[in-house]
């Protein structure tokens, strides 16, 4: 029975198999366009599409002026998410087996809540929120992106308006909001995946369209009202999420 898959998919599958079994090891050059055209009797567009599939899956990466090479897909470590870690600025404990140093840069602005964020915060659309964007580094290499939103009405006029400024900077959501009498009692996380945007890919060091893991996290106060929500983004091929689950009763 003939293979009913499109030619570009068969080329991508063949190359993936060669990478998986080690025939094309990490760092090896992917056959050139002309080589793939001859081997598969395919057009420029077909082989280019096959290589794009490899890149999007994290199997290959382009090097300007040199060609396309097999990417290293071995996980760098795990991000342990637990009751003790969920509220830190990084929202996880890094487990890499070495002395990795995590650092980050952040910038905040006051803006209007997009519809999906307003829904997550339980506020009217276009209400003013504090939006903080983070870039996390592990030993100065890209690790995680995050965007946080908080209702401005909750913190306006206090010392904790901006998460990374003032006397309560870098205390996490619970620590900061406790300073103004707001008790944060729980957080909910939804984990999913999607293709990386061009901006995310440039920052995380991957290819646009490559799979990233996204954690949607929302903090709630004692009245079960959302007080903060954020999106955390990591490369799915390089970092695994680990969850500590404590059993009670």
Automatic annotation (TrEMBL):
Q: Which SMART domains match?
A: HTH_GNTR, UTRA
| Any coiled-coil regions, as ranges | none
- One of its Pfam families is GntR
**MF term (GO), any:** DNA binding
Q: What keywords appear on the UniProt entry?
A: DNA-binding, Transcription, Transcription regulation
The record's section on InterPro entries has: Bact_HTH_transcr_reg, Chorismate_lyase_/UTRA_dom_sf, Tscrpt_reg_HTH_GntR, UTRA, WH-like_DNA-bd_sf, WH_DNA-bd_sf
Query: Do the record's keywords include Transcription?
Result: yes
**Domain HTH gntR-type residue range list:** 5-73
Q: Does the keyword DNA-binding apply?
A: yes
Q: Which BP terms from GO are recorded?
A: negative regulation of DNA-templated transcription
The organism's superkingdom is given as: Bacteria
Q: What's this protein's name?
A: GntR family transcriptional regulator
Q: Which species?
A: Streptomyces zagrosensis
């Amino acid at each position: 029975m003939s293979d009913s898959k499109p030619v570009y998919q068969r080329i991508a599958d063949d190359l993936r198999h060669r990478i998986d079994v080690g025939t094309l090891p990490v760092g090896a050059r992917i056959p050139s366009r002309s080589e793939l055209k001859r081997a598969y009797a395919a057009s420029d567009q077909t082989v280019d599409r096959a290589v794009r599939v490899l890149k999007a899956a994290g199997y290959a990466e382009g090097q300007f002026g040199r060609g396309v090479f097999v990417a290293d897909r071995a996980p760098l470590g795990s991000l342990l998410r637990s009751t003790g870690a969920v509220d830190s600025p990084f929202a996880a404990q890094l487990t890499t087996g070495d002395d990795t140093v995590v650092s980050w840069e952040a910038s905040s602005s006051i803006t209007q809540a997009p519809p999906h964020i307003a829904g997550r915060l339980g506020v009217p659309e276009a209400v003013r929120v504090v939006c903080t964007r983070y870039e996390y580094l592990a030993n100065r290499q890209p690790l995680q992106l995050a965007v946080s939103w908080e209702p401005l009405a909750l913190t306006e006029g206090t010392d904790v308006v901006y998460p990374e400024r003032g006397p309560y900077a870098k205390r996490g959501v619970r620590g900061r909001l406790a300073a103004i009498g707001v008790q944060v009692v729980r957080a909910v996380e939804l984990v999913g995946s999607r293709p990386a945007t061009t901006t995310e890919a440039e920052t995380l060091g991957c290819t646009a369209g490559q799979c990233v893991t996204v954690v949607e996290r929302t903090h709630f106060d004692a009245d079960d009202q959302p007080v903060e929500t954020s999106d955390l983004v990591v490369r799915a091929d390089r970092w695994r999420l680990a969850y500590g689950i404590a059993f009670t009763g």
